[in-house]
Design brief:
- The structure is a single chain.
- The protein is of the alpha/beta class.
- It folds into 2 domains: about 1-140 and about 190-215, 3-Layer(aba) Sandwich (Rossmann fold); about 140-190 and about 220-305, UDP-galactose 4-epimerase, domain 1 (Alpha-Beta Complex).
- It has 11 helices and 14 strands.
- Helix 3 (about 55-60) runs parallel beside helix 4 (about 80-100).
- The longest helix is centred in the first third of the chain and has 19 residues, at about 80-100.
- The protein is globular and about 55 Å long.
- This is NAD(P)H-binding protein.
Amino acid sequence: MKFIVTGSLGNISKPLTEILVARGHDVTVVSSDVNKQAAIQALGASAAIGSIADDEFLRFTFQGADAVYAMIPLSFTEPDLGDYMRRMAKNYVHALRATQVKRVVVMSGWVADLIKSENLEHDFDGLEATLTFMRPGSFYTNFYQHIDLIKGRGLMGKLLTLRYSGLWALITGKTGLLMGNCGGEDRIIFVSPKDIAEAVAEELLLRPEQNTIRYVGSEELTCNEAARIIGTAVGKPWLKWVLLTDKAMLQGLKMAKVPEKLAETLVEMQAAMHSGKPLENFHRNNPKMGKVKLADFAQEFARVYHQK
C-alpha cells in the first residue's frame, strides 16, 4: 500500500516510517527540510520536500495514496495558535478532497474536545474519507527539552514554555522544579512516541465505516511521580512538579514574552488537564496501554542528559 507520512523525521513520524517500510509498504515522508532527504531515503522511504502550508504541494504529493498520516507541527511564532492550526487543516482538507484519499489518520491531542477554539478535529469535517483522530497523552520526549534547565546551565532562572499533545509545562533550572497550572499530584497519561507510532500504523491499515477517535497512552502517573522518575535517572531524585494557579501561570507566560492570546490558550489547556476531565475521557475509552514505560525512557533520557 502507498502511505504518506507527514512530520518529517520527528518523534512519531520516524518510527512510523520504519514500521511501515519494514512491513513492505510504499512510504513517502513529507519534510520541509531538504537536508532530511538523504536520511529519509536511508530508511527505505521516498522524500517529498515541501511545506504543508502549500496546498498545491500537498495535492501533488497525495496523488495515488491509499492513506495519509496528517499532523500539524507547532509554531511558536504564531500569535494565534487556533488560527494557524485551522489554516494548516484547511490545506490538508483541500488536498485530501482533490486527491480523493479514502483513509486519513490525524494527530490531535487528549484535551482536544475540551478546548473548543483549538479543536482541529472539526476542521476535517465533510471529507469523503474515514478519519481517525489520535489523542495521545503527554509525550515522554517533552523532557528532552528540559535538559539545560534541569542542569541549571545557561537558562538558569529563566522560564521556558513547551507543549506536547496538549501538555504545557514550565521548568526552571535554578530551583530544579517543573511548574505549571497542571502539576503536583494531578494524574496524567504519559506516552512514548514509539507507542503512538505503533498505534498510527495499525490505524492506517484499518478501514472503519465511520470516523473514530483513538486515545493512546503508555503509563498513568502523577506529575510528581513522573518528575521523580526522570530526576532519579539523572541523579536528582528530589525533582518536583509544582502546581501553579492559573493566574501565576499566565503571568509567567507573559514574562516569557508569549503573545497574550497564545498564553491564555496555554493556561486553558493546562487548566483542562488539571480538572481531570481528559483522564476521565481516557478511562471511558479504555484503550490498551503501550509497552514503553517512563522508567524505560528515563534511561534513554539519562544517556542524552549526561552527554550534554
